[in-house]
Amino acid sequence: MKPPKTFLKDTFFNNQRTFDTEYVDVDIIKGKRRMAPFVHPRRSGKVVEREGYRTNTYKAPLINPKMPTTAEHLQKRLAGEPLYSGVSPDERAAEQLGKDLAELDDMITRREEWMCAQALFTGQIHVKGDGVDEVIDFNLTNKEALLSGAKWNEGTSNPLADLKRWRLHVIKASGITPDIAIFSSEVVDAFLWNEQVQKMLDLRLVETGQIDPQTLPNGVTYIGRIAELGLNIYSYDEWYIDDDGTEKPMVPEKTVTIASSRARFDMVYGAYIDMELGTMDLPRIPRSWVEKDPSTRWVQLISRPLPVPQHVDSIYVATVL
């Protein structure tokens, strides 16, 4: 199994919180720019109403993959085990248990990253699985699809003006200055070969911008920085297998997203209620049990994650091709 990448979770949803119930309270913060009122020295203070957020309550989605180990499995050599290692079935069972838990954890981690991507790029998380089909909507309204003539692979487009306009919109809507732009791979090519961007590069002014692509860990490529806008540009190459069996990019094709690493985005976890162990409010809850007929050991890893972009207005998503 390919190791999961966690650039989105690590960059934006790195504030972790746990709840002691299945339900999590989500504060969607949309404040205004009110000023304190003037008042006559002999008058009492002016009462102002509290405002700025809406609390939504969601039942945290349940993820609980499990794997079986049978006696037949223990008779076979594990992947990477020497041909004549002399490993006993009991030793092999312990090693298999650890590998299974690690694989289940990787699967949950990739699902968490997918949830972060959905929250960032669509403003919604579609929870669809066995017996569940619902949409968690964070009311992301900062979206745009560029029309013909403005698309970044056309000669009449101006990506720098678009980024400047979106950045200003985010600052006005949220009061937060975006510092990161994430491009899908094909958008990077269109951006770098765009005539307006080429003109900026030809100026070679440090204060205007510096484009110097560098490969970073976690599937990330640092494209460069537009100093005038305070934006660091990245592309993120990661994929997942969708429920229909097709492989899809974590960053939707033709998409640009600008956001702030300083905005309030949380990764919250709801509690899991077990009939024997009670309520457990942990990001990961391992379980293991044995069935006698047929003889099988099951291992399971449970989690109830939900990435929450409280400052949802600090995100702007655009389709640019």
Automatic annotation (TrEMBL):
Superkingdom, natural source: Bacteria
Protein's recorded name: Major capsid protein
